[in-house]
């Protein structure tokens, strides 16, 4: 029972913090500033291209052996799950944003909304509808 509770807690924290970080990374990848977009793309490709177990080992042994920090295995597991899930969630959010019809952005611009207002009031509410099923799948994947 304790293992189930710890698994759910780890997964919930990983998805919640990963969603916040993933949103920022997705917006960075969609940025028109090339260097920011490249950094975000590199983070996503590296995080998605390495197995989760390797990331757990790197975080655990990297913080304890290489950096000399005394961090518990539970915290290292949370950090590794956040790193992994934020990359996957960034791609989910980016795909959800890109799935919204371009006419919505054009209509918002015709109404005089700037980029931030368009994203906040027009694009993101529609994208969230597309994103929710995939976020549920990500949570289930983290539990596994």
TrEMBL record:
Q: How does it sit in the membrane?
A: Multi-pass membrane protein
Instruction: Give the GO biological process terms.
Output: amino acid transport; nickel cation transport
The UniProt record lists the keyword Membrane: yes
| GO CC entries | ATP-binding cassette (ABC) transporter complex
| Record-given protein name | Amino acid ABC transporter permease
Q: What is the lineage of its organism?
A: Bacteria, Bacillati, Bacillota, Bacilli, Bacillales
Question: Record keywords: Transmembrane helix included?
Answer: yes
**In which organism is this protein found?**
Staphylococcus capitis
Molecular functions per Gene Ontology:
transmembrane transporter activity
């Amino acid at each position: 029972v304790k293992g189930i509770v710890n698994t759910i807690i780890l997964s919930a924290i990983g998805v919640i913090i990963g969603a916040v970080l993933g949103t920022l990374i997705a917006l960075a990848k969609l940025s028109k500033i090339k260097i920011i977009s490249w950094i975000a793309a590199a983070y996503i490709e590296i995080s998605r291209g390495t197995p989760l177990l390797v990331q757990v080992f790197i975080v655990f042994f990297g913080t304890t052996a290489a950096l000399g920090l005394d961090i518990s295995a539970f915290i290292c597991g949370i950090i590794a799950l956040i790193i992994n899930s934020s990359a996957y969630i960034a791609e989910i959010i980016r795909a959800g944003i890109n799935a919204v019809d371009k006419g919505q952005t054009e209509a918002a611009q015709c109404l005089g909304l700037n980029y931030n207002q368009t994203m906040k009031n027009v694009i993101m509410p529609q994208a969230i509808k597309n994103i929710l099923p995939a976020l549920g799948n990500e949570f289930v994947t983290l539990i596994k």
